[in-house]
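re: ur msg from earlier - yeah i can do the pyridoxal-5'-phosphate complex, just paste it... oh wait u already did. ok heres what im feeding in:
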Amino acid sequence: MPTNSEITHWDKHHHWHAFTQMAEYEPLVIERAEGVWLYDLEGNRYFDGVSSLWCNLLGHGHPRINAAIREQLDLVAHSTSLGMGNRMSAVLAKRIAEITPGDLQHVFFCSDGSSANEVALKMAFQYWRQCDEPQPQKTKYLALGQAYHGDTLGSASVGGIARFHEIFEPLLFDVIRLPTPDPRALPAEVAKPQAAEFFLAQLEAVLAERHEEIAAFILEPLIQGAAGMVFHPSGYLRGVRELTKKYHVLLIADEIVTGLGRTGKMFACDHEEVVPDILCLGKSLSGGYLPLSAAISHPEIYSAFLGDTASGRSFMHGHTYGGNPLAAAAALATIDLLEEGQVVAKASEKAKQLGAWLDKLAAHPHVATTRQHGMIAAVELTASTDEVQAYPTELLVARRICREALQHGVWLRPLGDTLVIMPPLSVSPQELDFLGDAVLKSIEIVTAEMSVHA
Ligand SMILES: Cc1ncc(COP(=O)(O)O)c(C=O)c1O
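and the outut:
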């Protein structure tokens, strides 16, 4: 049995961590988890304040999800979805078809968010070559400034956050990029209530000119997560749907983060009664237990891929573990739990409590602003107490606050200088108070230290 210090050393030395500067990495090794709590090797516990990177939906170690995985394990752990199926993924596909908006009903499974988006992009491309009135010149994609759709080369190409993907620029394909529809970035002469109209006019100008070459518009509906929780103006998504229909451009909704109840409704698209052409789910789909994602399309797209084998119309894409029955069992249990317990509806009370904490945080002189949509929240810091002024990047203020939060029993991971708060929907009122209190204390301590050293 290895000692804790051996494990810690192996974690630092052999495990190359994602988006982590390994030279500075200070190992925090989790041994087990229960509910909202993560426990490290020494038994210290930390509130999972970002739901293990936005995926744990109903808490860790949920008995129903664990049992569903165990039961499936006794039947089959994995069988391929290339040319055959398995009971669990068939039932899950049917269930996803029932809960997703409109006539979305054909579910292509993969294992992570990036690959679901990769699938959606390729599906859109192949669709335009094979649909009733083929338009093979439609080879371009439209995407938003500061979009994030994953890290594989296709999903990174449509991404728009320079600090993530700049170095790979020579490897990425060209994308038609629209400005981020961020109401904070409106020109002075445009009033806030006109924000959606303003950004939609930008979209229409591009579509009017270039729609014939555009296969699809991919966007994160309502909230651009990795951009720092940028919230789109209300009405923007619906307008996007109307315009993409008008100009015959497919709409891909990347609900990897927003799907499955995070925003206060089952899907972000539900807020504006939008049915995209392809909807991508990931992260919370399996409750955050096992790698599972999906790209879901409607019959018009699906039928363009039908024909005999010799026609070459099959979708030319696949991942070994797509449709994995263990992950599907976890997802089915998650959807059951969401629906049985009316978890999404009940989360609105918790969202109110989270909102009350955000108000307290917003009253702190070094908090510029807070934003919230359901159980997704962001806190923006300011160096100056008189005006909104970002801290110098090199001070890594949000990172310091997250490190301080660890001392108060909370695990958080910032996005640049934005603090993200995204607890599992299963959080109790007492746990939410614990989280809010720890975040407030951490902000107080770190900003006070920074003021002393300024
Ligand atoms: C909106 C969005 N799409 C896609 C992804 C990529 O998902 P994955 O990390 O599972 O590949 C993420 C990850 O954070 C995301 O925020």
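cool cool. The radius of gyration is 22 Å. ping me if u need the other ligands too
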